[in-house]
Specification:
Shape: globular
Helix content: 25-40%
Low-confidence stretches: 1-15
Number of helices: 5
Number of domains: 1
Number of strands: 14
Mean pLDDT: 82
Order of helices and strands: HEEEHEEEEEEEEEHHEEH
Strand order of the largest sheet: 7-8-9-10-11-1-2-3-4-5-6-12
């Protein structure tokens, strides 16, 4: 009886043009050579009648704050725009959307100064097992799949009749409550939910034609997975290429002035472009070395 009541309640929610927000705790090990360092991020899965969106709560809040600060600077008309990217919360920068009813799945992500939209060409193929387990308040059942270069174990609850889940996972007869890869490097666990009114995502900010800011404004370039892999490899080989090109283009425009400043680990401020790019390349390569354990290894091969 409880299952039926819950089912009709959730169907009613969807019909009412509200969004169901599910909170997932995402634990991950970014560096396979340092398994003691486990990071956490609160992720959101927003579901409405048209589809779902999965993204970082911390990044969503940080982006909203940055957007408001930037719009204030643009509207002031001073001509000076300062963007501080230090100490911004949010470790997970990508977003996943799924369009109902056919579950067309897209990955939205940035590489350097460019934004990309990558359509997923494979769907999870599940094997449902008889094993059952209670996770929190949810009665769940086990399912396994091989996806993105990893072996995954999921626990879904038919008490929550959404065939969806965190990241790119969907297609089980109930919401995925927990999913974990075989190495224990990536674990997503449902920890709460609530209803919100209206669209979950903020609208994209429109920047003036002569303003370009990394990760803000502009449309995503839709590419295939194979194209993404080529772009990623080029970025790994030359992390500052796009930044250098942007600097050269702006150098030929007398109405545009671009200044890059950054501090080294010992606090020394750099303003010379060559020194800045050298430091950026060093930091990027160090970051890539420490983030060698992605959730989907097949995307970076």
């Amino acid at each position: 009886m409880k299952t039926k009541v819950l089912f009709f309640l959730l169907v009613g929610i969807l019909a009412g043009a509200q969004t169901n927000r599910f909170f997932y705790e995402y634990k991950f090990i970014p560096d396979s050579n340092n398994k003691e360092e486990v990071k956490k991020e609160m992720m959101l899965l927003d579901i409405n009648k048209n589809g779902s969106a999965y993204y970082s709560h911390d990044k969503f809040v940080a982006d909203s704050t940055s957007r408001a600060e930037l719009e204030k600077q643009i509207n002031s008309g001073s001509g000076n725009i300062s963007v501080n990217r230090r100490d911004r919360p949010g470790q997970v920068s990508y977003k996943i959307t799924k369009d109902y009813p056919d579950f067309k799945t897209y990955l939205f992500t940035n590489i350097s100064t460019d934004k990309y939209k990558i359509k997923e060409d494979k769907k999870p193929e599940w094997k449902i097992l008889p094993d059952k387990q209670k996770i929190g308040e949810y009665n769940t059942q086990k399912a396994i799949t091989s996806y993105g270069g990893r072996e995954w174990t999921a626990w879904f609850s038919s008490d929550i009749p959404f065939q969806d889940g965190p990241y790119k996972f969907y297609g089980l007869p109930g919401l995925i409550v927990k999913i974990e890869d075989a190495t224990g490097s990536h674990i997503m666990t449902l920890v709460g939910n609530k209803k919100i009114d209206g669209p979950a995502q903020d609208k994209e900010m429109q920047l003036p034609d002569n303003v370009r800011i990394l990760g803000m404004g502009g449309k995503e370039l839709e590419i295939t997975k194979d194209q993404y892999k080529k772009v990623w490899k080029a970025y790994v080989n030359d992390p500052t290429k796009n930044m250098r090109e942007m600097m050269m283009k702006s150098g030929g425009d007398s109405n545009t002035k671009v200044a890059f400043k950054m501090k080294t680990a010992d606090g020394k401020e750099l303003s010379d472009p060559n020194q800045v790019f050298k430091e950026m390349e060093k930091r990027t390569k160090e970051t890539l070395q420490k983030n060698n354990n992605p959730i989907e290894p097949d995307m970076t091969k």
